[in-house]
Amino acid sequence: MSIDKKYFEDFLGYGLSGNVHGKRSKIDELRLKSFTLKDPKVAFPDDDYISVLRKIEGRNGSLGGEVLKRFNLVFNYQKAKITLEKNRYFNDEFSYNKCGIELENDGIRLITEIERASQDIDVENKTVNVRAIYVSKNILVAKNTYIITQVTPGSPAERVGLKKGDQLIKINGSEASNFSLKQLMGRFFEEEGTKLKLEVERIGIRIPVILTLESPIK
């Protein structure tokens, strides 16, 4: 297995003992029987996080979701066998988080919103649409909130000043609460050079930033 000499330090995920950090890189190819995946990304957790796993005889790493999502898996428990069938994601390019932040759903909050409506009126038997919007009532709406939990060193997010603990309020002008966590994180994996306009809240202060997505490995 040939390891690319280029790598970067990153948050790798969550383990039983907490956050897992380490290095990310890529290899030329990964072969699983008759299947060959080109330029897959790989991760190397710091020794502190895998010292126990090293004691498991015969273990030689783990296959992550970026690999497994490219297959339909069939489990035969009686024969202790797993069959892989490639699916429509098989030829997708392996991608990285090009923004450099990890988000977490921080729960539901009740937010006061103004319910607005327009009304048609009849003037001399002619229907006229009233352009003015009037306020009918204030309502409480349950909204998702998203917090930045990790900022990758040297990433576009760090360079524009985003910090762990910032609450994401808007993305490209739209309320972040209108999106799922998967949808928001997906924006960070878009094409290199894509600009994102973010607005975060820190200790009650709204901070707008504009960053450009950049691959951590060329």
State the gist of this model.
The protein is built from 4 helices and 15 strands.
Any idea what the radius of gyration is?
24 Å
* Helix/strand class: mainly beta
The percent range for helix content is: under 10%
Uncertain segments are 125-133
List SSEs in N-to-C order.
EEEEEHHEEEEEEHEEHEE
The count of helical stretches stands at 4
Rough outline: globular
Mean pLDDT: 83
User: In percent terms, what proportion of residues is strand?
Assistant: over 45%
What separation lies between the terminal Cα atoms? 19 Å
Domain count, please report it: 2
**How many distinct beta strands?**
15
Characterize the largest beta sheet: strand count, sense, and whether it forms a barrel: 6 strands, antiparallel
